[in-house]
Specification:
By secondary structure, the chain is α+β, with helices and mostly antiparallel strands. The chain has 2 domains: 21-145, Nuclear Transport Factor 2, Chain: A; 148-176, no CATH class. The protein is built from 5 helices and 6 strands. The protein has helices spanning 2-18, 25-47, 51-56, 75-87, 152-169; strands at 58-65, 72-74, 95-103, 109-118, 121-132, 135-145. The chain starts with a helix and ends in a 7-residue tail after the last helix.
């Protein structure tokens, strides 16, 4: 009987040690506020053509995905592409209309989506951030142009030629 008690106690201790940390609503709210502020300042850094603050938020192994199907950038590639615009003081100015932030159970990963007011009209941004050494860093950001459902067929026609060229590079026949 004593052995059973010791085994059960050991299982309970082991199970308790492996239980994920429970984060409070207050902690979740604080993380959401911090990420919201960080993203707002990140967009402001682009509007101010502040290269260091803009790219300082992006992790070194991040991926940025743009509106063109060919735009899949590492941080380094994106920085090289953007540097001339930042140097000329004419980067983009995106204003957040709406943002949703979600926090992982471990409180070290967040994902978000945002509706943005841009020179192209309303656009979407979405991404993933990770807490690295007490700093939040963007690991992935996807920027997309919104298209009203009633206009999608017209847009498909406009982009057909470019899409066909792109898809031929991947040796696929999905575009007809």
């Amino acid at each position: 009987m004593k052995k059973i008690v010791v085994v059960l106690f050991s299982i309970l201790v082991f199970w308790g040690c492996n239980e994920p940390k429970k984060i409070s609503e207050q902690e979740i709210s604080a993380i959401k506020d911090k990420v919201d502020t960080l993203l707002t300042n990140w967009h402001k850094a682009a509007a101010d053509a502040d290269f260091e603050n803009y790219f300082g938020v992006i992790d070194s192994v991040s991926v940025i995905i743009g509106t063109d199907a060919s735009e899949y950038w590492t941080k380094k590639q994106f920085a090289i592409f953007c540097k001339p615009e930042f140097d000329e003081g004419k980067a983009w100015d995106f204003k957040t209309i709406e943002r949703n932030v979600y926090v992982s159970n471990t409180a070290d990963v967040v994902w978000f989506n945002e509706l943005l007011d841009t020179w192209m009209g309303p656009c979407r941004g979405s991404g993933v951030m990770a807490k690295i050494n007490d700093d939040w860093k963007i690991k992935q950001y996807i920027f997309s142009v919104t298209i009203p459902n009633e206009d999608i067929l017209e847009v498909i026609k406009v982009k057909f030629k470019s899409d066909s060229v792109l898809m031929s590079k991947f040796n696929t026949s999905k575009i007809k």
